[in-house]
Design brief:
- By secondary structure, this protein is an alpha/beta fold.
- It is 40% helix and 19% strand.
- The chain has one domain: Rossmann fold, CATH 3.40.50.2300.
- The protein has 5 helices and 5 strands.
- The chain is globular and about 35 Å long.
Length: 128
Amino acid sequence: MNKTLRILVVDDSKVMRGVLRKMLGCDGTEVLEAHDGKHALEVLAVEPVDCVISDWNMPRMKGIDLLRQVRQDAALAHLPFVMVTAEAMAQNVAEADAASVSAYLTKPFTAEDLWTTLRGILPGAASA
C-alpha cells in the first residue's frame, strides 16, 4: 500500500507552480506551494512533507539558500530536495552538490523526467 506523497513546490512563478502541481497530481500526490524560500521555511515549520522541489532563482530567498537552511535544520536535514533551474551552469550544479542537494533538474523537463528523478530519491514514489 503506497502512502500519499506530500511534496512542497517552491517557485516564485505561479504558472510554474501550477505546471509542477499538474505533473505531480497523479495517484493522489498532495502538493503544497510556497512562493519563495522564506515562505517555504514557514510551510516546513508546520507541514510535514516527503520532498521539496525548489526553483533556484527567487526573490527574498533563493533556492540554494533554502537548501542550506533545510540541511542545517536537524529535523529537516535528510529531507529529499530537488533543485530546479533554467541555468545548467556547472558552477550552480557544483554549489548545489556541495550543499547536499538530492537531485538537480534543468528546465524544460517533462513529467516523466520529474518522476524519474523522484523515484530515484523517494522509495516507493508512484509514476506518472
